[in-house]
Amino acid sequence: MDRNQRPRSIIDSLGEELIAILTPVSICMFTVVLLVCILNSDPSSSSSASFSSIATAAYSESDSDSSWDKFVGAFLNSLVFVAAITVATFVLVLLFYLRCVKFLKFYMGFSAFIVLANLGGEILVLLIDRFRFPIDCITFLILLFNFSVVGVFAVFMSKFSILVTQGYLVWIGVLVAYFFTLLPEWTTWVLLVALALYDIAAVLLPVGPLRLLVEMAISRDEDIPALVYEARPVIRNDSRLVQRRVWRERRSGQNDNDDVENRTNRNEVVRVVRSAEVDEEHVGSSERAEIYVPLIDRRPDQAENSETFLEGIGLGSSGAIKLGLGDFIFYSVLVGRAAMYDLMTVYACYLAIIAGLGITLMLLSVYQKALPALPVSIMLGVVFYFLARLLLEVFVVQCSSNLVMF
Amino acid sequence: MEDSRSDDPNLNPIRNRNPNPTPNPLSTIISSAQVWPTIDGPLGLTEEASVDYARRFYKFGFALLPWLWFVNCFYFWPVLRHARAFPQIRNYVVRSAIGFSVFTALLSAWALTFSIGGEQLFGPVYDKLVMYNVADRLGLSGLA
């Protein structure tokens, strides 16, 4: 029986894979911008809200400091944060080396539960408070409980519905990103740049923890137990149908042996997963408002280690693109912080991030090894934010007020 | 090469279909297997593992988790569609669907009564139960 379909070109398959990874990133960013716009719209509470966490341990910003003070303070904060993440990543590498995989998986499930129940609950309460939605606490608790427990299942169990797992991962990214946007402004920007640099170091240097982690995972042919978004593998008609996680063959130089039918499909490459770990900072109680959540005791000096967020991009076991959850989070933090200024900066930063992600994916297909996904996008995003804020805004405002362009 | 229509009414009409007639031995092996029980198709579970999963989801759902029942039905949607394909899985999935419907009906009845009835129906208890007051009392909404 002849196939009358036209042969799928590289553009079709590449486009499908790109869309498969761009869609969840966009959804995550969009949701964070939406939350920021809704919840921060009353000006009385926004600027004074301070919340202490490990990222503001060295210096907490106040409006009266000079710019240089703020910058130095932000720099110190970032150093502390990056140091904490490095330590946490090395701990993860050590645990993985000692084969404590069960503990890591349990920890992952536990941190997902904390994020979903705690942070999710807080955001829902904030939304309910904002809209005065007449829901009662029994229904609310049942819904929150359901949502969190099924989320833990989705993250914990390896063979779960792809759509539900992806949805929950995006949702976890949204929740953590929203809380990161509550950091003071200078700290956020310096922190983003510092994390981009850290990502390059951790992934590309031979001594970097993520590189060690990935090499160990490859040599043992295992999955890293971590929160990683894996796009649904694209099944092509002309290649062999592959069951997920069945084949993990290294690509040898046998690309010409297409007639060897038992070989992997041409998408099957060295299974590399890039990971960097992001310590989720502990949302401690602020200096002024007491935030007491009955579920968990908050201690501002202790980092809440849900360190299984990964940054970095790589190829999954079936050739699908894997993007660490830390990337989702920090892209969304950048866009969320841009949203706090104006929507114009949001558009600029969104396009910059998507362009950066596209560049990273192209580099991934060229180099065929795991790459850090943060640096290009974050650098472009930060540059475009400042350009838009300093230069574009003046231009657009002048044009609009003179009715030249809207 | 098998005829997809069979005279035998007991045979599962799905099992012998061969939808992907490429001359590739591996794809013929895979495509001559039955319809996959999960919504993910070939990326999802095999039938044996599905029974285990369906049973576990069904049992866990009794811990006040109707959403888990819903996810169970969603995940095994092909089981519900092809009525005679997977009898064991279907048992659990149908029961999950019933459980989800019943629980949702009860919960939404309560929630709607609460929100529509409001203060007139409940009196002072309303203020004690409604979420934004509870949040204010416990200080949960002071973050932003």
What's the short version?
The complex is a heterodimer of chains A (406) and B (144). By secondary structure, chain A is mainly alpha-helical. Helices cover 58% and strands 3% of the residues of chain A.
Could you describe the 3D structure shown?
The complex is a heterodimer of chains A (406) and B (144). Chain A has a 3-stranded antiparallel beta sheet with strand order 1-5-4. Helix content of chain A is 58%, strand content 3%. Chain A is mostly helical and 406 residues long. Chain A has 11 helices and 5 strands, in the order H-H-H-H-H-H-H-H-E-E-E-E-E-H-H-H. In chain A, a hairpin with a 5-residue loop joins strand 4 and strand 5. Helices cover 60% and strands 0% of the residues of chain B. Classes of the chains: A mainly alpha (406), B mainly alpha (144).
> What is the CA-based Rg of chain A, rounded?
22 Å
Relative strand content of chain B: under 5%
Major sheet description of chain A: 3 strands, antiparallel
Number of strands of chain A: 5
Structural class by sheet pairing and helices of chain B:
mainly alpha
Strand content of chain A: under 5%
Biased composition (Low complexity) (chain B): 9-23
Protein name (chain B): Probable gamma-secretase subunit PEN-2
Pfam families (chain B): PEN-2 (PF10251)
Family (chain B): Belongs to the PEN-2 family.
Structure keywords:
heterodimer, A: 406 residues, mainly alpha, two-stranded antiparallel ribbon, 5 strands, globular, B: 144 residues
Per-chain topology:
The complex is a heterodimer of chains A (406) and B (144).
Chain A: H1 10-39, H2 43-46, H3 67-97, H4 101-131, H5 137-156, H6 162-180, H7 185-204, H8 209-220, E1 228-230, E2 277-278, E3 309-310, E4 313-315, E5 321-324, H9 325-339, H10 343-367, H11 374-401
Antiparallel strand pairs in A: 1-5, 2-3, 4-5
Chain B: H1 25-31, H2 47-60, H3 66-75, H4 77-81, H5 87-122, H6 124-129, H7 131-138
Helix pairs in contact in B: 2-5, 3-5
